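P.,

For your records, the input lines for the assembly:
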Amino acid sequence: MTPAFSPFLPVLLLFLIALGVGAAILVVSGKILPGLMKPDNPQAAKLTPYECGAPPLQQGARHRYSVKFYLVAMLFILFDVEAAFLLPWAVQYKTHLGTFWAMLGFLATLLVGYIYVWGKGALDWER
Amino acid sequence: MAGINLDDSVMTTRLDSVVNWARKNSLWPLPFGTACCAIEFMSMMASRYDFSRFGAEALRFSPRQSDMLLVLGTVTNKQAPVLRQIYAQMAEPKWVVAVGVCASSGGMYRTYATLQGIDRVVPVDVYVPGCPPRPETMIYGVMELQKQISRESLSARKDHIERFYQSMARQEELQRAKGLTSYQVVREMVLEAGAAGGQQIW
Amino acid sequence: MVIERIEAQLPGAILEHHAFRGDETIIVAGTRFLDVVDLIFGEGYQLLLDVTAVDLEAPDYRFEVVYHWLNLASQARLRIKVPVAEGAAQPSLVSRFKSADWAEREVFDLFGIPFEGHPNLTRLLMWEDFPGHPLRKDFPLDGGDLFCSQDIGASFAPEARSLNA
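Structure tokens returned:
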């Protein structure tokens, strides 16, 4: 016989209790206990960035740095993706002649790009 | 929510003792080691004297992550603003232990170069004499600090910390006004305090 | 020995010389100093160990800048003292000896003796805007801090110095 109420009502009840207990824990540990125990004393000197006690060498953490980091990261992505494409090709290039040459064409394009990058000195870290 | 006032004082006291118990048994030190006392500190951390019994195994060299500033060794007048900055950047609750006579009073160095006791520039809770103090002496000093902590009250405002931050603001203002380095400003504040009869600049 | 050779090649450069248990010291006038340095470099004294100074408050010159050299081949040491008047500058040896760099900065910081030709003559031990030069005899030991030597007694106060009375 069908019960008068949904059989999932206990599940709803459990869910609500879990929600309530969770909320209570969050409120107690996030608001009530810190309100009692936390020494809340924001001071200007306390919030200064930590540089071993010395005055900061540069104003702020966002200062200029060399573009070579960006270049290296970008080139890495390009050639890494190329390498990733080489992997599935490597296992089945012998199946068809066209497969081999198609990838060679792709590699040739990237080779031209590589020679250009090399010539431009983007691979020269110390510059 | 700066503070909830519980009118039931019995409950506050019990909370005080629980919180203080937790704090005193987990004092994470910031070893501000400058000289020989730091070597004695190292032997205190080692297995024979084993400071980590006191919950102090986690040495944090960052002021944000530590509770207890252990000043181990001579602090020069050039180092004084650095010490002040480190103490200022520490998150509360925080305590300072002056380990050794150089930190407590300038030690054997009565000169223009040595700060005659760190209590001139930062508030100190416990002084541990010795040159250098034996590890047992330092442990005794920390146990004294633990006794002090267990007597603390949660709701009481720490007056010395308040005055310290006011002195930091004064220092900042003098630096801007006179265009001097922090070293010279702190030195002038110390000399001025000495001439006025007191010795502390906080 | 080297002193005779210096006398032979640069007559009149050495104002005075004395030795104590094998410790040779020569006093050289400031004007002949660089010639003597180049000569002893040729003789093998190629390691400049230290540059320091003494505040003598003597009547004709105030400071004496003291240099120490070591001859690595013969293990012989030589000390050269140069009398310097107050306010006068010394030529810097940084171009010849890299070890003179910070040693000369220290002498400048603590005595106030400038070194001509030093690439970065700034204070080394004290902070940049420290007033005065601490190792001069007229600089008080406590640096003007009334509470520094308050319970030692007056023996370190500038007025009570009896050494140079």
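Two observations worth noting. Chain B has a mean pLDDT of 89. Residues 24 and 146 of chain B are 5 Å apart (CA to CA).

Regards
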